[in-house]
Amino acid sequence: MSLEEKIIIKAAQAKQAAFALAVLSTEAKNQALHAMAAALEARSSLILLENAKDIDVARKMGMSRSMLDRLMLNEERILQMAEGLRQTAMLPDPIGQGIGSTLRPNGLEIRKVRVPLGVIGIIYEARPNVTADAAGLCLKSGNAVILRGGSEAIYSNQVIASVITKAAYEAGVPEGSIQFIETTDRQAVRILLNLNQYLDVIIPRGGAGLIKAVVTNSTVPVIETGTGVCHTFVDASANLEMAKNISINAKVSRPSVCNSMETLLVHEAIAGDFLPLVIDAMKEKGVEVRGCEKTRSYYGGLVPATEEDWQTEYGDLILSVKVVADLDEAIAHIAKYNTKHSETIVTQDYTNARKFQQYVDAAAVYVNASTRFTDGFEFGFGAEIGISTQKLHARGPMGLTELTSAKYLISGEGQVR
Amino acid sequence: MSLEEKIIIKAAQAKQAAFALAVLSTEAKNQALHAMAAALEARSSLILLENAKDIDVARKMGMSRSMLDRLMLNEERILQMAEGLRQTAMLPDPIGQGIGSTLRPNGLEIRKVRVPLGVIGIIYEARPNVTADAAGLCLKSGNAVILRGGSEAIYSNQVIASVITKAAYEAGVPEGSIQFIETTDRQAVRILLNLNQYLDVIIPRGGAGLIKAVVTNSTVPVIETGTGVCHTFVDASANLEMAKNISINAKVSRPSVCNSMETLLVHEAIAGDFLPLVIDAMKEKGVEVRGCEKTRSYYGGLVPATEEDWQTEYGDLILSVKVVADLDEAIAHIAKYNTKHSETIVTQDYTNARKFQQYVDAAAVYVNASTRFTDGFEFGFGAEIGISTQKLHARGPMGLTELTSAKYLISGEGQVR
């Protein structure tokens, strides 16, 4: 059997399962999530054994320490995965929720209700916990899922998928609801991206390269996630202590994630006071600061920032800094370079705060808060499958609701047109 | 300048205009819509002159009468176009509408508001009124639009686009908000489909061939519209007179549109009574009826229906009929062959009505009403840009709301994470 035939069989099974999953009761889905959690805990030594194989290969290939850290599992991380599934069980079931209804003049009653998307493909890298998280969120929202993890985590993903799939099936979830692509052959991704007959949507989770490859090659609808060139703009009227704290938090608290800051924009009027304050603090935290010409005139010894810097998601302890003449220049810089993820202004000026939120085009636009809050849990969704940076279907953090579609139910008594 | 360069210039202008359009006041947009309507009326003789050129070419190429009818404009149709723009002006502006807000435990206030999608590409065929309709709906929803009509209507589309673009600009709409691709070179579509840097979404409107080509070749997100293999299932408990009326309406009232019926499914228990009733009535209306083997055992002289019939959107006065053993067989047939558009059951059985609406996967699932009601105006949206048959972003008739995205506005007082 060719690779394509094998994948089509899995996709067809998922599609078949999706019909039954769409009408599975909330109670049955929650029981399965608890069973999956318990199975992960019960098989933790097996999971750690398989994870050790991935770590071993990765070490031999010279993987960086931060990548190794993402890949590595331990008892605590397995408990967290299990806990995540239990939390998903506790969230309200979006399926069947009414989104509105009308009674038309001709007597037709029209209701709009949430239904699953159908079959969701998740293509992801590195962190093996995505296998359990994504499977749990898709199950709760009544969707079948096809998981395709990165080759670096193949042993870990495989054993996690196997454990949760078995537990879900035994708890009454339709067979085929959770599919895992076991090959590391890159061709498998290409095949998935064109299975329009079986897949309703593909969500890539990973680096910019993965996401671009999926967007470019997929004929199945894609929800683009995650790249973030996020800015903090410190306005002339900003409380400088607040601006420093927000900047440090946005850059330093977790530089590898998409909602962290890459570029700091500073109003010229306070540049002389603020730049020394913030750059000293950044350096203390080990941040490499690159500055525009003006920035360097206020603070000596910085690496010059180039055109490339404004476009770069460092994902690391590096920061580019630019001095701007006013709010309009800040907005224009953001419009040119941002990835429509998260942007913040620090200001005490009411009009500027309002204008920034209205004019900046991004999923999340902040006033006086760190961009690091763009996250499904921080937004109160109780879960997150990724952060959409596109405008279609979902924007910003995606919870269970974003994994649903809708249908209209129309009830009449013989109406014709 | 190459074709690609020309189109990129238009797309870049549209993207630039979209920033200003996103914050244009409702009042300014409405004034522009009224000005566009007045301009269409004032230039109606010029529009008819240009339309006559299209009709002339089409006649020489032997275009069918029904296609010619779609292409043809007259004074009344121009007045309708203008009236459509005025109606769009009267609809509520979706931009800025709040979709919910929360106050988080840490004091962050999170609001979700509607914003435009940005730049919308519309690729359409035949009817020149789409040029005005689509431009009006995109303008009202704060989106820039790139219009690409079919070559058969090039003269008509060009003059309509020119008249409304000029009127909109003079009324204060940002320059570049309405773009029209003037070439009939098919390469232009290919170029548009890959301008991810400029376009946020592409909506194809036309036949199955056009839609498939767009879905297959576009890297820009697409909203699939319009193909409809719709079914009517007449259950054992149906009121047969109601079932006949609904079937006739669904097939005959406008066979060329996507919400009309292609296949009639009849419960075996009432096939003997119902088939003669409905087939006689269909024949009286000039419908060619093709039947499965069982259907033909109840009603002699019908053309046999083949596997291909169940898959076909006739768009014409042709109907395929299948006798099924029960509700489950009807649901299974629909799951196998429908295009997820509109489906209806005629029944007096409460449990079957409920099961049909729950189990059938389609944008609109009816009980005791004609599928012909799947339409933005009939649903009370006041407008329609097309009918989505995909599950992502929009499903069923798309009004102004479906032409929007959202953003989160988060206000704090120095919160960090």
Automatic annotation (TrEMBL), chains A, B:
Q: Where in the cell is it found?
A: Cytoplasm
Q: What is this protein called?
A: Gamma-glutamyl phosphate reductase
EC numbers: 1.2.1.41
Enumerate the InterPro entries for this protein: Ald_DH/histidinol_DH, Ald_DH_C, Ald_DH_N, Aldehyde_DH_dom, G-glutamylP_reductase_CS, Glu-5-SA_DH, GPR_dom
RNA-binding as a keyword of this entry, yes or no, is no
Provide the function of this protein.
Answer: Catalyzes the NADPH-dependent reduction of L-glutamate 5-phosphate into L-glutamate 5-semialdehyde and phosphate. The product spontaneously undergoes cyclization to form 1-pyrroline-5-carboxylate.
What Gene3D superfamilies does its record include? Aldehyde Dehydrogenase, Chain A, domain 1 (3.40.605.10), Aldehyde Dehydrogenase, Chain A, domain 2 (3.40.309.10)
Enzyme superclass (EC): oxidoreductase
One Gene Ontology cellular component annotation held by this UniProt entry:
cytoplasm
Output the PANTHER family linked to this UniProt entry. Answer: DELTA-1-PYRROLINE-5-CARBOXYLATE SYNTHASE, GLUTAMATE SEMIALDEHYDE DEHYDROGENASE
Q: Which residues form the Aldehyde dehydrogenase domain?
A: 9-285
Which HAMAP family does the record associate with it?
Answer: ProA
